[in-house]
Amino acid sequence: MSKKKVLSIIFVLILLTLFVLIYIRGCNGRKIILQDHRLTYSDTYRITSKSDLHTINEIITSMNPVQVDDEDTSLRIGGFVIIEEHNRDNILSYRVQGSRVTKYIYKKTPKSLISTSYFTLDDKYYQLLTDICDKHRKNK
User: Fold this and answer.
1) Quick one: 140 exposed, middle or buried, by C-beta within 10 A (0-12, 13-18, 19+)?
2) What is the residue range of 134's domain?
3) How many independent structural domains does the chain possess?
């Protein structure tokens, strides 16, 4: 083989390695799933588009923490959406029902609950979340 062919093969291998590393770093072991329970049946959507991921990050960061001593489960009647974020160590599950959000943190499996906290969500962000669910339902 000539020297140019060897150099071009090495160059291509380096580019492929960089591409794979950038892709893996971009994924960062994070997976976002929406479970839509607003209708009589439920749907599950894996969120992959960057715009939807950005919107969901915006929704999560806009949640305002509230102090709740004892949650009234009778208020849980009606539809809701669950945002599940799977990362390497934990599962973060946000149960969104209108302006009420309950956040559950699990250690690797949904059976090992670590903590529960409560948040409120503005109507604008709840509408963004339902728009994402509706868009994925139409595309299914």
Assistant:
1) exposed
2) 29-139
3) 1
